[in-house]
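Hi everyone,

Forwarding the result from last night's run.
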Amino acid sequence: MIFQFKNINIINPATFEGAVFYGVILLACAVLINRMLRLGVERALARGSRLHIDRTRVKFISQLIQMIIYIVVFFIYARLIPALSNLGNAGLASVGVLSVVAGLAAQSTLGNLISGISLLLYRPFNVGDRLQIQAPTGLETGEIESLSLGYTIIKTDDNRRVVVPNSLMASQTTINLTRDDARSICSVAVVISLEADLDQARAILLDIVAHNPKAQKVDGCPVTHLDGSGVELTLAAWCENSLVAGDLKCDLLEAIKRRFDAAGIKMTRPRRIISAK
């Protein structure tokens, strides 16, 4: 075989073949390192319950490191290839100018990244926590499914995914329903007429909630308001979480209507006072 590679030098980065060769090698190294990193993270998270690993922090840092690895490999390649060395030197020498330009061109993206780092440091919530947030569709309640470099994904109770930019998650008021104690209280206010038997109405309310398995602990049934329109009783009970509390409230309202009708207890509306100015 007479064919020789005397005109091709893949080891020399100054040649086209060398530039392609080193580009493939460096890209393969970056992909391999990131793959090993992902496998390590997956194994660590699989043992997270035993090692008490913060899943939110590990996933976020893993994504950040993968992005940094590709950036570092790009600058190494730019410094290694003579044709791109000027680009590498210029990138390092004028990093201040580039940062201003990049900031103006990608304010939203950089803002989401910085806000994601802020959420990671201050940790107002973790992956798996239940939150209430204000979205364009109204008040949404769901579980934090993931926290990425740019977005927070919330899985709602009806299996929808609400994708919220990190900058919005860091700036808006959210209600964390999971931290420390996942329990939620269910309150049902009932207004009965002034002529109704107060003790009988309270006994019926307490009996209804006592026989509902969704209620963990009865918090009481005090009189919370009194005026000429009637007497307001507020029945309160602790539940496992906010989702169960919503279901319990529906059960209680239906049972109260049936039991009060059977007992002849009349319910009224609170009187609304309208003042003219």
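The first helix runs from residue 16 to 46.

Cheers,
N.
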